[in-house]
Automatic annotation (TrEMBL):
It is found in: Membrane. It holds the Pfam family PQ-loop. Its main location: membrane. It comes from Palpitomonas bilix. This is PQ-loop repeat-containing protein 1.
């Protein structure tokens, strides 16, 4: 039975729309979960070696703070839901990383309590997961107060949140690069993690361009890619050097 031209065209359009929708959903799912995959290998490395010296806790600080800021930015900007879910998932992943680092440090003799929160010299190097939770909850509380107090008509605040979130995120590789530079070693740092940063940032850049995301996202992606390249160079430079050898 032959179909009339209008009906045939409609069915073809429906099929193309469905395929496009499935592809778009697959890309969104990849955007949510792929950036966190590298931390699985880093987690395994830490648990196997029972040391977290190769992983900078400042990476988790950057990721928790920038993703909290991005969640509040979404309340003002309403960008893609996939990016919001990515932020929520990444926050959860970083607390898993903090938990294993705290647990390993405790076994290695580092211990303390809530009073560490008031010691600036120990900022984000606390020995209990509770301290990380308390500080993060305080940041959320302060941002929630601003969200309630500042009217939505004040666009400069919303744009400021976006730039703050993405400028913080763009500095993500810097703590790891700086740590590697100081000890002149990448020992204990997961190659899969750095590869996921590099490939993930390329993927994000393409995603932002194709989806017409706010310009803040593009600026962030380009800065991150630059540091990713620098860390890859460090892996090549320090490939035959261990942190112990440099002591």
């Amino acid at each position: 039975v032959s179909l009339s031209p209008p009906l045939s065209s409609f069915l073809q359009f429906s099929k193309m729309s469905e395929e496009k929708s499935l592809a778009s959903t697959a890309v969104d799912i990849a955007m949510i979960f792929l950036p966190a995959l590298g931390y699985v290998d880093q987690y395994i490395t830490i648990t196997k070696t029972r040391q977290n010296k190769g992983f900078s806790l400042s990476v988790s600080l950057v990721l928790v703070m920038c993703n909290v800021l991005r969640c509040f930015f979404w309340l003002r900007s309403r960008f893609e839901m996939a990016l919001l879910y990515q932020s929520m998932f990444m926050i959860a992943v970083q607390f898993v990383m903090l938990e294993v680092c705290v647990r390993i440090n405790r076994k290695n003799g580092t211990s303390g309590g809530v009073t560490e929160l008031f010691d600036l010299s120990k900022f984000w190097a606390w020995s209990t997961l509770l301290n990380f939770v308390i500080f993060s909850a305080f940041v959320v509380f302060v941002l929630a107060l601003f969200e309630y107090a500042i009217p939505y008509s004040l666009e400069v605040y919303g744009n400021g949140l976006g730039y703050a979130a993405l400028l913080v995120e763009s500095s993500l590789p810097f703590p790891q690069w700086n740590r590697n530079r100081k000890v002149k070693s990448t020992e204990g740092l997961s190659k899969a993690l750095i590869a996921s940063w590099f490939l993930g940032d390329i993927f994000k850049t393409v995603y932002f361009v194709s989806n017409g995301s706010p310009s803040q996202f593009l600026v962030c992606a380009f800065i991150q890619l630059s540091f990713d390249v620098l860390i890859l160079v460090q892996f090549l430079t320090y490939s035959n050097t261990s942190a112990t050898d440099k002591k």
